[in-house]
Amino acid sequence: MQEKIEQLKVKILEAVKSVNSSKELHETKMKFLGKTGEVSDLLKGMREVPKEERPAVGKIINDLRVWAEGVFDEIEEKIKKIELEARYKAEAIDVTLPGKKTATGAYHPNTLVKNELISIFSGMGFEIFEGPEIENDYYNFTALNTPADHPARDMQDTFYITEDLLLRTQTSAGQIRVMENKKPPIKILSPGKVYRSDDDATHSPMFSQMEGLVVDEGVTLCDLKGMLDEFAKKIFGENVKTRLRPSYFPFTEPSVEVDVSCFECGGKGCRLCKGTGWIEVLGAGMVNRHVLEGCGVDPDKYSGFAFGMGIERIAMLKYGINNMKLLFEGDVRFLKQFKD
Ligand code: DAH
Fold first, then answer.
1. Contact indicator for 15, 27 with CB cutoff of 8 Å
2. Atom of ligand 1 at shortest range from CA of 310
């Protein structure tokens, strides 16, 4: 028996040598100490041992069990330590590593300008109206005092869809839709995309405009000038002045082109204002009687002014952008600069 036990001890020591994980340790332990393990088998063999020798043999086997448990405990401790270290290593966080950056978006300069314009004009009591981008000839031209044979149609290169349908060339079309549906007093602001067959550094086939229309009793050119002064100061700076130059638009009479004093040089003359001290920013005028009449508004009772400006043009002036293409290409390197 003693010999058997010695052999088993050697076997156990040999077996634990190749144990590398808790799982293997458990399996090996069960092989010897489990219910059907080799140590337990020895106990089962007790039946054949003469009765008087049983206590002594039992003690030897029990000592073996205690010894074996000690061996396994020792190994278990070592393995646990190794495994814990491995886990710590695998889960380690290097706090000195640079963090992952989450890219955030920013408003497009066009949106910035559009929002600023909306905020300025809604502060003056304007409501927003958005008309359709596909218009018919009547709203885009005829009702705006520009009948088919009118030379002013050549001022804008129009994309026609059918003989009657077109991509609107101006947000002015919205003026008609509003006046047809609303009685004065009217005070609306109409932002939106417009289309023209035009393409160079300062023109794009698609661009955005912001239209304004005020109709009420006793509205004068003075009201227009006063409102524009206020607008120019808010968008370009407190010291900016405005001036009106005579111009021509079929739907306004008189028509004006509105300049602001150059906010870059203060009016002395620089590259931005091409040495003139003034920068053209929008078209405006008193709504033509024919236009009011055509919409069912009595021109003897009511008068109004209208204005229209290019949002990209304002953005280019405000941010010193020299090519309109930059506003449409979506180049992140360009757009990043407008992140505040
Ligand atoms: N619709 C004109 C254009 O696109 C701009 C404009 C001029 C609008 C005068 C107006 C206005 O409302 O009164 O060139």
1. no
2. 4
Could you tell me which of 216, 218, 212 has the C-alpha nearest to residue 171? 212
Q: Which of 32, 35, 5, 16 is nearest to 77 (CA)?
A: 16
Residue 218 C-beta-side C-alpha neighbours within 13 Å? 0
Handedness of CA 128, 133, 139, 145 (dihedral sign): positive
Check if the beta carbon of residue 46 is closer than 8 Å to that of residue 57. yes
Q: Give CA–CA dist 335/106, Å, rounded.
A: 8
pTM higher than 0.85:
no
337 CA distance to ligand 1 middle (Å): 31
Can you spell out the DSSP letters for 21-59?
A: SHHHHHHHHHHHHSTTSHHHHHHHGGGGS-GGGHHHHHH
Q: 73 by DSSP, 3-state: which?
A: helix
Cα–Cα distance between 5 and 61 in angstroms, integer? 8
Q: Which long-range contacts (CB under 8 A, 24 or more apart) does 218-224 make?
A: 218/303, 219/286, 219/302, 219/303, 219/304, 219/305, 220/286, 220/303, 221/254, 221/256, 221/286, 221/305, 223/305, 224/256, 224/284, 224/285, 224/286, 224/305, 224/307
Contact between residue 190 and residue 307 where contact means Cβ atoms under 8 Å apart: no
Summarised one tens digit per residue, pLDDT across range 63-117 is 888 888 888 888 889 999 988 998 999 999 888 989 888 888 889 999 999 999 9
Q: State the Cα–Cα distance between residues 48 and 150, nearest whole angstrom.
A: 126
Where do runs of H (alpha helix) occur along 214-274?
221-236
Rounded CA-CA distance 298/253 in Å is 16
The amino acid sitting at 304 is: G
Amino acid identity of residue 15, one-letter, is A
pLDDT in tens, 322-334: 888 999 999 999 9
Q: Which of 172, 122, 114, 120 is nearest to 318 (CA)?
A: 114
Three-class secondary structure of residue 332 per DSSP: helix
Residue ranges lining ligand 1, Cβ < 6 Å: 170, 172, 211, 249, 252, 283-285, 306-308
Q: Which atom of ligand 1 is nearest to the CA of 251?
A: 13
